[in-house]
Amino acid sequence: MKDKLTLKSTHMNPAKQTVTSKDVAKLAGVSQSTVSRVFVPGSSVSEKTKQKVFEAAKALNYRPNAFARSLITNESKLIGLVFPDADYPIHMKTLQLISSELQKNGYSAVLIPWQFDEKDNHSVPNIFQYRVDGVIAASATFNKSLYEECEEFDIPVVQFARVVEGSKSSYVISDNYEAGQQAAQLLHESGVKNAVYLTGEVPTFTNDERQNGFSSEFEDLTGKAPRIVEANYDYASSLDMIRKIFSDKQNPRPDAIFCATDNLAIAVMDIARLEYGLTIPHDLQVIGFDNIPQAEWLSYQLTTFRQDFLRLARECVKTIVAQINSKNSQLVKMMVPVKLVKRNTTKF
Questions:
Q1: Structure pTM?
Q2: 18: burial class by Cβ within 10 Å (0-12, 13-18, 19+)?
Q3: At 304, which helix (H) or strand (E)?
Q4: What b/e sequence results for 25-34 when a residue is b if at least 16 CB atoms lie within 10 Å of its CB, and e otherwise?
């Protein structure tokens, strides 16, 4: 009999229901609209009323519905992050830094997927479906439709560490031209005569700036322009072109290679040492860019450039939040200094 009563009691116990703003309003003795206003930052509600609502919300374990609030305020407090290759070592780190900075400013990050379109350009699905207040984009290879769509819906965009030329949006990037100059100066001091700048297959504004800074400075210092070689940013896909650099009969073997990324620099080192028996830095000096974790590995100890990703993230978030709050369409174009990290792949 006892078992039957227990079973009956359990069966009749209603499922836990979601607490709504109507429940909070009833307990606090205020209107439902007042409860909604209390949870909207900056709304005109007296402190006494706010306290009553907060106490009632706490007693009922009420959590305001973010989507419902976004319909009232016309703000979702969401920032879309459009990033390529999240598996590239520095991208995961920068995603974490940006997300952390957004949280400090009352925003949350939503990672927006990207894909290739029919012309092999990187693109994203309809940005408006995510109901974001702004977008932070970190790829220079997206087609301009992303920026055009955001402009159409009055969604501010800030480009992080990359620039899509012709897009009407703010950007916060590293000083790539200065980095190129520093690389040229270091190699010149090391006695380099035949230098190569190894880049990827996709032209970008930031890479062009680095290449131009390196080429211009190296030619000014030595009287000879460095050779520009285009490979592939992917490690495996770049190997054949790197082999051609060392086996080229029409050009002297370089005594230094400045690479657009650390991935390329590591590929250069592997081919130079393992297939051509070159000693680094005695026979070949190598400089990378990005300071990925592998650059510090004992087998590489790569001289490279470290981008100040923490400052880039802070300035990027500061810019997007300011443009959201002020609806200011004035473009921000900011460059952040980089730091040359000297290790064992250069002589000095």
A1: 0.76
A2: exposed
A3: strand 304-307
A4: bebbebeeeb
Q: SS3 for 11? A: helix
* DSSP calls for 26-71: HHHTS-HHHHHHHTSTT----HHHHHHHHHHHHHHT----HHHHHH
Task: Provide the 3-class DSSP secondary structure of residue 178.
Answer: helix
Bridge partners, residue 195, by sequence: 256
164 Rama class: left (phi>0) / alpha (psi -120 to 50) / beta: beta
Nearest one of 142, 146, 166 to 155, comparing CA atoms: 146
Which residues, including other chains, have CB under 8 Å from residue 280's CB and lie 6 or more apart? 269, 272, 273, 286, 344, 345
Q: Phi and psi of 74, rounded to 5°? A: 65, 25
Helix axes 176-189, 205-222, angle to 10 degrees: 30
Contact 320, 164 (CB under 8 A): no
Count of alpha carbons within 13 Å of 250, Cβ hemisphere only? 2
The band of 129, judged by pLDDT with boundaries at 50, 70 and 90, is: low
pLDDT for the residue 41: 61
Strands 108-111 and 115-116: unpaired
Residue 225, burial from CB neighbour count under 10 angstroms (0-12, 13-18, 19+): middle
Backbone torsions φ then ψ of 226, nearest 5 degrees: -70, 155
> What are the φ and ψ backbone dihedral angles of 113, each rounded to 5 degrees?
-65, 150
Task: State the Cα–Cα distance between residues 164 and 202, nearest whole angstrom.
Answer: 12
- Per-residue pLDDT tens over the stretch 151-196: 777 889 999 998 877 778 899 999 999 999 999 999 999 999 999 9
C-alpha 182/C-alpha 63 separation (Å) is 53
Write down the H helix ranges in the chain: 2-12, 21-28, 32-38, 47-60, 66-73, 89-104, 145-152, 176-189, 205-222, 235-247, 262-274, 309-326
- CA 200 vs. chain centroid, Å, equals 19
